[in-house]
Specification:
The chain has 424 residues and is of the alpha+beta class. The chain is built from 15 helices and eleven strands. It has two domains: 203 residues, 2-Layer Sandwich (Cytochrome Bc1 Complex, Chain A, domain 1); 179 residues, 2-Layer Sandwich (Cytochrome Bc1 Complex, Chain A, domain 1), CATH 3.30.830.10. Helices cover 44% and strands 18% of the residues. The chain is globular, with a radius of gyration of 22 Å.
């Protein structure tokens, strides 16, 4: 396959302090997005500050040395910009979208938050209550609850398994000074990636980053790693009894981590398995057997570990059947050839999704920062499409056999009664 020369190219510059700046210009767009990623999050939290990364994410919007919380939002609003942030197990990402012409001013506000937040005491106490309500909300939502419980169990004894939000106990007990210390130790230049996408000029973003983020610390980021003999907690099932109409479950299998050379094979396998209305899970579980309204698969991928997860919600009396069918569809990759129409359709779905995502600046700044973090440089769109196109059915089958032939997944469920067990 010949690379499409019309696709945008990502550029990267590393500043003297180690901060990386990545941009992807699309001249025809009116808008642009800019993000600041810190390559430290939940997995790097010490025992006495569980949930600190997410707590700090909230607090960075609550005031800097020259802006109050209200002023931050007013300044974004005056530019017509939309700002947000999220916390995952391995990153905290602050980003904003605006007209391309106002990206410098938008970036200045984000950078002020990132470097100069004061974490005002009164705001810490108010936001502590907000985070506690977020924890309660996730507990009350059965889908979120069972996902978080599954994640904690699947990655038991791995730093990835720590809850992003922390716990009610940890959030209640973290003092402001400990939050400030955590931020100082983790918000370092070498762990920071600035990404911009849309109608932006690379050199302009580099110059802005050099000026606006010069106040970041220059130490080395501490990283918590699992024990050398760690492995996913598989072949276990746990049921959380709750009076509900449905039984909802997650089941999961070990797969190679996010930066693996097999990532393109896994992307296609996941698309065929549970990536939409033409997927095997949708057709077999929903269309043919009427077992569930919602069923899908996803790859939960991190730098040193990953899982292939399947979710479904079904009636209590058919939950075991649904689990057996889902497991059968995974095992099917080990025993049955993938026909040309199926693999070609999956590749086209992935290709179109990635090309259409070029119109979404927010998606692009996340992709640029994610791939830069994983590989040390941004993955070019043309390269990723070429790699997907080159995958063969034989390669997917060989990989599936190595991963799933003897695998017994982990299953966690929530709903009435005693719940389902492991797949038969």
């Amino acid at each position: 396959m010949t690379k499409d020369a019309s696709l945008p190219t990502a550029l990267m510059t590393t500043l003297p302090n180690g901060l990386r700046v990545v941009t992807q210009k699309i001249s025809a767009m009116q808008s642009a997005a800019i993000g600041i990623r810190i390559d430290s999050s939940t997995r790097n939290e010490a025992d006495d500050c569980g949930g600190a990364s997410h707590f700090i994410e909230h607090l960075l919007f609550k005031g800097t040395e020259k802006r109050t919380a209200d002023r931050i939002m007013e300044d974004f609003n005056a530019l017509g910009a939309r700002a947000n942030a999220y916390t995952s197990q391995e990153e905290v990402f602050y980003y904003a979208t605006s007209l391309a012409s106002t990206i410098p001013a938008t970036f200045e506000i984000l950078a002020d938050m990132f470097v100069n937040s004061t974490l005002p005491e009164e705001e810490v106490e108010k936001e502590r209550g907000v985070v506690l309500q977020e924890i309660s909300m996730n507990h009350d939502n059965p889908t979120r609850f069972v996902y978080h419980q599954f994640h904690k169990g699947f990655w038991k004894d791995h730093p990835i398994g720590k809850p992003i939000l922390g716990t009610a106990v940890s959030i209640t007990s973290i003092p402001r000074d400990r939050l400030m210390q955590h931020k100082k130790e983790n918000y370092l230049a070498k762990a920071t990636i600035v990404s911009a996408a849309g109608n932006v000029e690379h050199d302009e973003i580099v110059a802005l980053a050099d000026r606006l983020l010069s106040g970041l610390g220059t130490g080395e980021l501490p990283r918590i790693a699992p024990g050398s003999t760690w492995s996913n907690a598989l072949a276990e099932n746990i049921h959380y009894q709750r009076p509900m109409e449905q039984t909802q479950f997650y089941m999961g299998y070990t797969i190679p981590p996010a930066g693996s050379e097999q990532r393109h094979l896994l992307t296609i396998l996941n698309q065929i398995l549970g990536g939409g209305m033409s997927s095997r899970l949708f057709r077999e579980v929903r269309e043919r057997r009427s077992l569930a309204y919602s069923v899908y698969s996803q790859a939960a991928s991190y730098s040193d570990t990953a899982g292939l997860l399947i979710y479904a919600g079904t009636s209590a009396d058919r939950a075991q059947e649904a689990i057996d069918v889902c497991h059968g569809e995974v095992r099917r990759f080990c025993n049955e050839m993938i026909d040309a129409d199926t693999i070609n359709a999956a590749k086209e779905q992935i290709r179109c999704k990635r090309l259409m995502a070029l119109d979404d600046c927010e998606t692009q700044v996340r992709r640029l920062s994610n791939t830069t973090s994983l590989f040390g440089a941004p993955e070019q769109v043309a390269d990723s499409l070429e790699a997907v196109a080159a995958v063969t059915a034989d390669e997917i089958i060989a990989m599936a056999k190595s991963l799933f032939s003897d695998a017994v997944p982990r299953v966690e469920s929530i709903g009435p009664g005693d719940g389902p067990g492991l797949p038969n």
